[in-house]
Amino acid sequence: MRGAAKPGRYADGNGLYLVVDPSGAKRWVLRVVAQRRRRDIGLGGVKVVSLADARELAAGYRRIARDGGDPLAERRRSQATVPTFEAARSRSTVNRRPAGATPSTPPSGFSTLREYVFPVIGQRCVDQIDTPDLLKILSPVWLTKPETARRVKQHIATVFDWARAAGHRSGDNPVDGVAKGLPKQYDRAAHMTALPYGDAPAFIARLNSDDSDELVRLAFEFLILTVTCTGEVVGRPLARNQPRRRCVDHPG
After folding, report:
1. In 47, 102, 210, 222, which residue has its Cα 20 to 30 A from 121's Cα atom?
2. Per-residue confidence at 249, pLDDT binned at 50, 70, 90?
3. Are 97 and 107 in contact (CB under 8 A)?
């Protein structure tokens, strides 16, 4: 390609050309017929792609076209970046944030995924995760924390539904096969016995006579007298836009 200084198109053979732009920039272009359509495929500038590299790339694209494929579509697929599970979780929640939420507001279920899921598969690409990986996450908490495990399972399924819709996975959602490898969950046989309302004054009197930590006793008494939520007593704030509600029923 010596002497190719003037603007124009210089053939190397087999559809490979060196294109010199009016600005003096030089780049490789492959002209090939694929699926009965002419395609001009840019292979890069001469400063980053040598003649040998351009010929190798051209040979690969010609092979795809000869086999009936589309070289441009194949290149787009090879250049597509498959997100990690953590990145996919972030992208899948962009259009599903509740009204009033700000970009800094953590999406629903984020803390649960951060604790149970991200340490195991957070940095793995979503197309490389399968049902056995999810069993490793859910098995330890499936019976000990059944409600948490069900929420984790639901959040994971949502991420993979998005990944399939976005073209980063194919086939079934890997969560669909998890149930076959997990034991059956059973509801608790009985609830904890509730203190009759009429016995509350005597209980508070006994509580005040106890020699346990004063802050704990005062907090417990405050919870009983105000019938508030435990989370509010210990200082855990309500979620954004969540209405305050009474946590137990009581007369009046």
Report:
1. 102
2. very low
3. yes
CA 55, 56, 60, 66 dihedral sign is positive
- Please say if the pLDDT value at position 243 is more than 70: no
The confidence score (pLDDT) of residue 140 equals 94
Q: Which residues contact 77 (CB under 8 A, 6 or more apart)?
A: none
Q: HEC string of the chain?
A: CCCCCCCEEEEEECCEEEEECCCCCEEEEEEEEECCEEEEEEEEECCCCCHHHHHHHHHHHHHHHHCCCCHHHHHHHHHCCCCEHHHHHHHHCHHHCCCCCCCCCCCCCHHHHHHHCHHHHCCCEHHHCCHHHHHHHHHHHCCCCHHHHHHHHHHHHHHHHHHHHCCCCCCCCHHHHHHHHCCCCCCCCCCCCCCCHHHHHHHHHHHHHCCCCHHHHHHHHHHHHHCCCHHHHCCCCCCCCCCCCCCCCCCC
- pLDDT score at 47: 84
Contact status, residue 34 vs residue 26, Cβ threshold 8 Å: no
120 burial level (CB within 10 Å; 0-12, 13-18, 19+): middle
Q: How far apart are CA 220 and CA 229, in angstroms?
A: 11
